[in-house]
Amino acid sequence: MTGAPPLLQIEDLHTWIATDAGPVRAVDGVSLEVAAGEAVGLVGESGSGKSMLARTVMGLLPDRASTSGSVLFAGVDMLTVSEKARQALLGPKVAMVFQDAGRALNPVVRIGRQITEGMVRHLGISRSEAQERAVGLLTEVGVPDPRRRLSNYPFQLSGGMRQRIMIAIALACEPDLLIADEPTTALDVTVQRQILDLLDRVRTSRGMGLVLISHDLGLVAGRTDRVAVMYSGRMVEEGPTDAVFDTPRHRYTEALLASTPSLDTPRARRMRVIEGSLPDPRRPPPGCRFAPRCTARTEACDESGVDVLRDGVLGHRHACVHPTGTPGATALTKAVAADETRI
User: Fold this and answer.
1) pLDDT at 326
2) Phi and psi dihedrals of 122, rounded to 5?
3) N or C: which end of the chain has fewer CB within 10 A?
């Protein structure tokens, strides 16, 4: 991190969703920073709160959700700002690529209109100028015959093409921060590589901050500057990507790396899994939320308040009572090798 103030600064964020059985603690006390031009990976198994964290930043929460803490974007608190001011920021300052482009795109509106309407509204340009900019955007994201594609509907495009359209829409107003939520989900491996290369290229050329949400550790290991690991709504480890994957400190991070498939694993060997499941988000355990699944669990892990991030070397922080000291370089190498081989 540099001495400049972070582009995005999340402090002690809570996002709880009311239900008849009690509030779901989807995000429960998370802090995270993203600098301009920096790529930050957000990883964890399904249900860890990654997507809900992103939706909180964007203000895309259900009616029954309540929030506390702060989400500062360029000094503006996204949780307390007026709806009008928030709408002015979404698009030209911060944008999001959703994991399912087929559902995110409007099925009855042509691609051209979906790309240009944000530019007309936020940039104040004419529709004809926006149309030309849209052609340039589609060219930039690798869509062939871009002018003809503007008249297409989403159902007329392949999954990879729809994902490129989503990225074009997100980049249309040249945001300072892009949140990509599982941007390669359901895409074949060749298209996955192309989409990730595209995000890398755009981030580098525009100096844009990027939050890459994924459950694929190999993907995040090879394409981010820093990584944050979430579990059951909490941040359990955070730091430079190489440090987190080479020397994981939290037992959950270590378990995730150990369960990553590799090319040199003997066929007869059973794949390692993390036994058990996530705790009930309405009634999480008082101490470390990973403790019920952890092989290093002791009574100290069950004490309230022990799951706070502890400062470490070079910004590598973890929230483990019994941190592992076993280097995980082999696990990282295998994860990256598997990723590069697949895509």
Assistant:
1) 44
2) -90, -30
3) N
